[in-house]
Write a structure and sequence with these properties.
alpha+beta; 10 strands; 11% strand; four-stranded antiparallel β-sheet; Hypothetical protein af1432; 410 residues; 3 domains
Length: 410
């Protein structure tokens, strides 16, 4: 048994297959991938890693196994999946996942090959586990996959508390101990026991508050967009680098590669010095035309080039950031009300209000070098057919918006 001191859960005892997996290269690599990517540029203490998060997920999974009386090979598979659930992440966590998915067809939870090969595969097989069955749990398959990747999973329970702890904000405070004790399997579905609607709501509220204050903070949004653009240019510029290799880098490796490439070295400098682009436009969802929301990646890149050309800028100096429309996966969590299983979204009056808040907080961003924000802002509003009343253009930056009220002034 190995005992590890954790900043969130205090002491975590790791044994069995999880202890054997702990020192494999795939798991140790997670020490060098920040949990929140570039969020540290907004919250300097947000330097926690996927490694410590994986330990936390394993710890909560152990508690859930004890509570649910799951043992034997099923329990060992879940322990392994909890420890390995993040090994498919690329550098800076989710920040460049859209890029690597376009090139490789794989998301971070597509880990069949990673678990079947090398030391991880050997360790699983030595412990009598089929790597493909463990990979299925990481992807959320089957009854027990819900514990690792689902609406009530231990992954979510750990990252909300951990992210709030390391950023110093009070919004991710939930009670994972109570949530774990309330878990039940009913007809193969993972649900919360009767009397726990408020516990389910706590997950929903925590996620809804963490999104504008941390995950979608405007500094994080800008730096993520700059990193995505630079990583895409790196792939195009370096014929010796494949998307599959990029996906297996850690944060340090990617930054070095960006620094050594002429096409992306300026981004590496800007990142190191926190010399970020600024918002030229910050547009509400109601001010964005449907055709722009539906634009493909290639169409978005063409629009960036057009705006940059019209403003006499290098194509790298304009970034159009169009987030996906808001979603609230937590609202599909299942709770027992009497003898009936109900989705939280149909039981809680909070869901509708939080959905409305999500739509109000959504923003399209156009980012550029500080000296060009005014002309890029005007060009973007005209070219993208944005409703000016729903867009915060650079020289009107003093006008408050829902997200600005939460965000750190820049």
């Amino acid at each position: 048994m190995t005992t590890i001191k954790d900043s969130v859960h205090d002491h975590i005892e790791v044994e069995g297959v999880a202890a054997d997996l702990l020192d494999t290269p795939a798991v140790q690599r997670l020490r060098h991938i920040k949990q929140l990517g570039t969020v540290q540029l907004a919250y300097p203490s947000a330097n926690h890693t996927r490694f410590e998060h994986s330990l936390g997920v394993y710890h909560l999974a152990e508690q859930a196994l004890d509570h649910l009386d799951v043992d034997g090979v099923d329990a060992d598979r879940i322990r392994a999946a909890a420890m390995l659930h993040d090994v498919g992440h690329g550098p800076f966590s989710h920040n460049i996942e859209a890029l690597t998915h376009r090139e490789t067809g794989k998301y971070h939870d597509d880990v069949d090959e990673l678990l079947a090969e090398g030391q991880v595969g050997e360790t699983l097989r030595e412990n009598g586990l089929d790597p493909s069955r463990v990979a299925g749990l990481v992807a959320g398959e089957g009854k027990f996959g819900q514990l690792v990747s689902g609406e009530l999973d231990v992954d979510r329970m750990d990252y909300l508390v951990r992210d709030a702890h390391h950023t110093g904000v009070p919004y991710g405070t939930i009670d994972p101990g109570r949530l774990v004790r309330a878990l039940r399997f009913v007809d193969g579905e993972l649900v919360l026991a009767p009397g726990n609607v408020q516990s389910a709501e706590s997950l929903l509220v925590a996620r809804a508050l963490m999104n504008p204050t941390v995950y979608s903070h405007h500094v994080a949004r800008i730096s993520k967009a700059m990193l995505r653009q630079a990583s895409e240019r790196l792939l195009k510029s370096d014929p010796d680098l494949s998307a599959a290799e990029l996906r297996r880098m850690d944060d340090h490796g990617l930054l070095v590669a960006l620094r050594l490439c002429d096409e992306t070295s300026e981004f590496a400098r800007r990142y190191a010095e926190r010399d970020l682009y600024k918002r030229a436009v910050w547009a509400e969802l109601g001010g964005v035309p449907d055709w722009l929301l539906a634009a493909s990646h290639e169409e978005t890149r063409e629009l960036e080039d057009e705006i940059a050309d019209a403003c006499d800028l290098d194509s790298r100096e304009v970034i159009l950031d169009v987030p996906d429309e808001p979603s609230m996966r937590e609202s599909t969590s299942r709770v027992m009300v009497g003898d009936e299983i109900r989705q939280l979204g149909r039981q809680s009056p909070l869901v509708k209000a939080l959905r409305t808040a999500q739509y109000q907080q959504w923003r399209l961003g156009v980012y550029t070098v500080p000296e060009a924000t005014e002309r890029v802002g005007h060009e973007a509003v005209e070219r993208l057919d944005l409703d000016v009343e729903g867009a915060l253009v650079s020289e009107r930056r003093g006008r408050p918006s829902t997200l600005d009220e939460f965000a750190e002034a820049e």
